[in-house]
């Protein structure tokens, strides 16, 4: 089958950073696995980080986590899907990815594709939706309908995860949402998704929040955590909570002690990677996202569709993500 992968780590502008490949198709699905014909995929920072730093050990590495497609076969333990179903999902880091014609994935981390979206539009959503949902509800412990009189600060509001944090929080909680953005177009994007206020993360975040009269109880940091750490510590309310999805440099969690602030990590691959007893929660939450989309309460975040996938177009998508200026998500159609 056709696939795109890499044999050695290279910068994105290297001609062999990603290669067009012909590899064996997956075996028939076993257990809870389903075999999906990938109709669309999107690119996330995790794709670019692994391409730059993870040398393949046994043959080519096939990246790609977000996908939308059609079920072609199911394993004997499957009960959630059958051949012909349209699905979307985010895969897992320790299995071959979605940059291929066919992919095996555990049905317990797969949701039904939103009926009102195309395959490319749907492929923009899974990884960021899971990260946002788990970060808000499972890590920060914010229950549906809660948060009246309290505020949430979203660092990196215009990116893929930030876009979904804002939408889910606006639709499922009573929180006042403050997103950060540094350009007029990214600030407008944040407001269009439901942010009540936007502050500039290149400026003094704490001072801007003070001017708004907002002291966030919750902080969801989606990028540049280390660079913004002092501002996050200064901004969060006493007895508040912070969730991080990255930190590319060390941070000093001891600074949170005077305020008794709790610190949480969110990695949406944890449940499938460790086979946790509750991994089926990702199936349930993706179905909930599909319902919210189909009822017009949240929207897809695809802002670029580069067309049918191949190595050259995936290198272009990786470059866009690495630029740090993306609003929303970049998507490609099936190989």
From TrEMBL:
Classification via SUPFAM superfamilies: GroES-like (SSF50129), NAD(P)-binding Rossmann-fold domains (SSF51735)
GO molecular function, one term: RNA binding
NCBIfam families, alphabetized: adh_fam_1 (TIGR02817)
Entry-linked InterPro entries: ADH-like_C, ADH-like_N, ADH_Zn_typ-1, ER, GroES-like_sf, NAD(P)-bd_dom_sf, Quin_OxRdtase/zeta-crystal_CS, Zinc-ADH_QOR/CCCR
Subcellular location: Cytoplasm
A Pfam family of this chain: ADH_N
Keyword Metal-binding: yes
CDD domains hit by this protein: AL_MDR
Database matches in PANTHER family: QUINONE OXIDOREDUCTASE
Gene3D superfamilies to which the protein is assigned, alphabetical: Medium-chain alcohol dehydrogenases, catalytic domain (3.90.180.10), NAD(P)-binding Rossmann-like Domain (3.40.50.720)
Domain named Enoyl reductase (ER): residues: 17-332
GO cellular component, as recorded: cytoplasm
Family note: Belongs to the zinc-containing alcohol dehydrogenase family. Quinone oxidoreductase subfamily.
Entry keywords, A to Z: Acetylation, Cytoplasm, Metal-binding, NADP, Oxidoreductase, RNA-binding, Zinc
Protein's organism: Neoroseomonas alkaliterrae
Protein name per the record: Zinc-type alcohol dehydrogenase-like protein
Source lineage: Bacteria, Pseudomonadati, Pseudomonadota, Alphaproteobacteria, Acetobacterales
Complexes and interactors: Homotetramer.
